[in-house]
Write a structure and sequence with these properties.
The protein is α+β, with helices and mostly antiparallel strands and about 300 residues long. About 65% of the residues lie in helices and about 10% in strands. A four-stranded antiparallel beta sheet has the order 3-4-2-5. It has a two-stranded parallel ribbon with strand order 1-6. The protein is elongated and about 80 Å long.
Length: about 300
């Protein structure tokens, strides 16, 4: 299936230095925001109190959320659990808080929504658990980048490997900057979305690089910039269809998924847009400016023959 009726010929690489400036400004801005404002970590990372409430009929989640937010707890989370008659209330930890007192206060508040509401259980997530999840999440991201570097190095060539890793670093950094500036809760679901975006972005980059490798062999008289432009244009239809279809589903999830999936949906939405952009103007452009050539993509045997044939 083709989105365009003919292969486009847009000169992407001609404006790459302008987009370098945009990417650098966005990355620097994201780093500043992360240090200055920080992320609004959810209870998964900070610890806190989790309460399960059962309602005799379908729970009004918006009204319940409004009541809980009126108790002046910091960034409370209210979400359905299992069915539409069960809600989970998550509260961030506070100094010297009595868990029994907290659960009693929330239960009394929810009885204003429904007098027959039932507190089924109360759990405390300790801060040490949140710290462990933070460390494990950081290690997961680190190992992802290491494996990406190894994969692209062996799959293509070291110049492509370096540019692919830089492009893949670029995407989650901008997502983190978005969460820092908006204050949307950063929880395990968002971390999972970032890991998914890393894989999505890498896949897009690999598709372009595969075509670049083919075109270096078939377009021997073309310059490296012409080959890179041709490769991007040849895969553009596939990129538009894949990104558009995925983005359509994620936007629907963002609109209809509710508060529980809000952070997850925003991370995927930003990630798809940024990942598509970075596969062209970060990965492809960097490989080109690192003087990628046909000789770089030759198998070792062909390079040796070329050297032997020299006078």
């Amino acid at each position: 299936m083709e989105f365009f009726h003919r292969v486009t010929s847009y000169p992407f690489m001609h404006t790459r230095r302008r987009w370098y400036a945009v990417s650098i400004a966005a990355c620097v801005g994201s780093v500043i925001l992360l240090f200055w404002h920080g992320l609004n970590f959810g209870i998964d990372f900070t610890g806190g109190v989790v309460m399960e409430f059962g309602f005799p009929q379908k729970a009004n989640i918006e009204e319940t959320r409004g009541v809980v937010e009126g108790l002046d707890y910091s960034h409370p989370q209210v979400q359905t659990f299992g069915d539409d008659r069960t809600l989970l209330v998550r509260l961030l930890p506070q100094e010297n808080q009595d868990v029994n007192e907290v659960s009693k206060r929330v239960e009394e508040a929810l009885r204003k929504v429904d007098p027959n509401v039932e507190l089924r259980r109360t759990e405390v997530v300790g801060p040490q658990v949140g710290e462990e999840l933070t460390n494990q999440g950081g290690l997961a991201v680190l190992f992802t980048f290491v494996l990406i570097g190894i994969y692209t190095w062996f799959r293509f060539q070291w110049k492509m490997g370096v540019s692919a890793v830089i492009a893949t670093l670029h995407d989650p950094l901008l997502i983190l900057g978005f969460f820092a500036v908006t204050g949307i809760t950063f929880d395990l679901a968002v971390l999972a979305a970032i890991l998914a975006v890393i894989g999505y972005s890498l896949n897009d980059t690999v598709v372009v690089f595969d075509r670049v490798r083919e075109n270096f062999h078939s377009m021997r008289k073309a310059t490296a910039e012409e080959i890179m432009d041709a490769s991007i244009n040849q895969t553009l239809s596939r990129t538009v269809i894949t990104s558009g279809a995925t983005l359509l589903v994620v936007v629907v999830l963002l609109i209809e998924g509710g508060e529980t999936l809000r952070g997850f949906s925003w991370a995927l939405t930003i990630g798809i847009l940024v990942g598509t952009y970075s596969s062209i103007y970060v990965a492809g452009a960097l490989a080109l400016d690192m003087n990628l050539s046909a000789r770089d993509l030759m198998p070792p045997q062909e390079k040796d023959k070329e050297v032997d044939a020299m006078p």
